[in-house]
Amino acid sequence: MRAVDLIQKKRDGKRLTKEEINWLISAYAAGTVPDYQMSAFAMAVYFRGMTMQETRDLTFAMVETGEHVDLSAIAGIKTDKHSTGGVGDKVTLILAPLVASFGVPVAKMSGRGLGHTGGTLDKLESVKGYRVELSQNEFIKQVQDIGLAVIGQSDKLVKADKMLYALRDVTATVDTIPLIASSVMSKKIAAGADSILLDVTVGEGAFMKTVAEAEKLAETMVELGEEVGRKTVAVITDMSQPLGQAVGNRLEVLEALQIMQGQGREDISRFICSLAQIMLSLAGVEKPLAAILQHLTDGSALKKFEEMVAAQGGNLEDLYRPSSARVVTEVFASESGYISDLPALDFALFAMKLGAGRAVKTDRLDYETGLVFDKKVGDAVQKGERLARIYSQEKLGENQLTEFKKNVKIMRVQRIPKEIIKIIS
């Protein structure tokens, strides 16, 4: 077979066979198919799509390019969670220790930023000393010992996906359902958890822009999970505004700590507790939201998070360190009313320009920069009241401040934002 023939076949809208997909993915993982050809293939998929059978074959072909993690040595039903990404998405930092605080083991492999903001690993690496790379034995032992580990994807696990994941980020081929579904589920299947919660974000700040697209992606991933015997549930959630208050790696860690100290906004705390209830239920543990909220605010989740950070080499003093960004610019409201819109993508791109996200895969992140919003959609605001803080390494120009302010929409009528939109199982 030749890669160029398969690229042409998909470019022309034809269906690839299982054998063709297996050959292409294994050859890419082996290095005989170069990045430029795989980029062309990804773009062909972006425009031509894939059938469910092709997506299934792609997923399992990627699983076979690496090791499978065997979590059978860990007692209980192992749970995992994945988000399709968004702006200010620090959910894993809070949700994983919250679920683990109930004695349900969470063995999670996370990724770096895909697009405009940092990923879970980038956030954790803002803590001095935190190790995202553990051996499989270290990973399993840590979950046995403390019930929780969040690590990076090993080069030995789904090698083809790790290569393609970084490539898609810089070739404008991220937001296509077959590539998202196969990427997410190949990792989840190889990672070995018994049950999986999928947070499928939808809206301007997500890869899926419409609820219909998000539903299709969710249904595809749930089907892939159930096919290999993993209890899988997808939750479609709104990402039309940044999640929580902070956007930026260090700033999101600090917000996560505030939430686990009972000082977070009620909306994000309730949202995370709802996700935790689903994850616990997948593991056979039924808890009312009130009990879950208590674990979130009484220090139970925080203690588990600190245990994980310490176990993976993180410095607990540095964990609580404020951002070291040199300049903090406050933004104030020019009129009274209600916040009606905080377009997530616009603010993500703004934060990326400050250094909080990557434009290309080789970019180095500035962990300290980003945004913190005092007000969110639906909140009342008075003229002269602070709306947000911008953390940067250099003083902002007037054009930058104007750009930021124009994206904060204030109206006389209150608009209540959505949270969880739909559950698919």
Automatic annotation (TrEMBL):
What EC identifiers does the entry list?
Answer: 2.4.2.2
The membrane-spanning stretches of this chain are: 21-47
Segments forming domain Pyrimidine nucleoside phosphorylase C-terminal: 338-411
| InterPro entries reported for this sequence | Glycosyl_Trfase_fam3, Glycosyl_Trfase_fam3_N_dom, Glycosyl_Trfase_fam3_N_dom_sf, Nuc_phospho_transferase, PYNP-like_C_sf, PYNP_C, Pyrmidine_PPas_bac/euk, Pyrmidine_PPase_CS
Range of residues in the leader sequence: none
Q: Which cofactor does it need?
A: K(+)
The reaction(s) this protein catalyses: 2'-deoxyuridine + phosphate = 2-deoxy-alpha-D-ribose 1-phosphate + uracil; uridine + phosphate = alpha-D-ribose 1-phosphate + uracil; thymidine + phosphate = 2-deoxy-alpha-D-ribose 1-phosphate + thymine
Q: What does this protein do?
A: Catalyzes phosphorolysis of the pyrimidine nucleosides uridine, thymidine and 2'-deoxyuridine with the formation of the corresponding pyrimidine base and ribose-1-phosphate.
Known partners and oligomeric status:
Homodimer.
Family (UniProt): Belongs to the thymidine/pyrimidine-nucleoside phosphorylase family.
PANTHER family from the entry? Answer: THYMIDINE PHOSPHORYLASE (PTHR10515:SF0)
Supply the name of the protein: Pyrimidine-nucleoside phosphorylase
Species this protein is from: Streptococcus pantholopis
Q: What is the lineage of its organism?
A: Bacteria, Bacillati, Bacillota, Bacilli, Lactobacillales
